[in-house]
Request: fold
Amino acid sequence: MSGIDTLFFDVGGVYLTNGWDHIAREKAATQFSYHFDTSEQYHQSIVEGFECGRISLEDYLKKVVYFEKRDFTKDDYIHFMQSQSQPLEDNLSVLKKLAQQQKYTLATINNESLMLNQYRIEKFRLAQYFSAFFSSCFVGIMKPDGLIFQRALWITQRKGEACLFVDDREENVKAASACGMRAIHLQQPEDLADMLRSEGVSF
Reply:
């Protein structure tokens, strides 16, 4: 038997596309015809505060996009940000099966800004699958800081060896492992089902 009773997942790259990554930000610069490099410098200077919930979307946009006059509206820009989130349907089917059998506690440990996190939870009805969201914008800590994993264990009152964490970034997997969790580095989304089964997770 695997001994696993709790499954923690990243969201972007596992069940959905990434919310606001480098590729999406470059696409935005092309779509709205502004200079990407300058905007990216501003993004990098405040991204931790933005994804840890300390900087609002309004202040983020003022700093990163609207530091000079633009000919597009904030509503148009926010709609573009939201449109970058798309489902990974096969993996969502796996998640649905896991939730239906009620064998495992399911939760997320993910980095995301407040607006996009709430949008993604509501748009893709993630709350019907996950019982808790240890999102950076909710807990004020970003992966790969080990404290976010430790806090998830404390709050759920789980032992690390009974937990499996899945993420598409190696540094996050290493951080989870350092906190005692079993962890999977999911390099290709389509490998999720096989990798879960390889760890003894049944669905």
Q: What stands out?
A: The two ends are 14 Å apart (CA to CA).
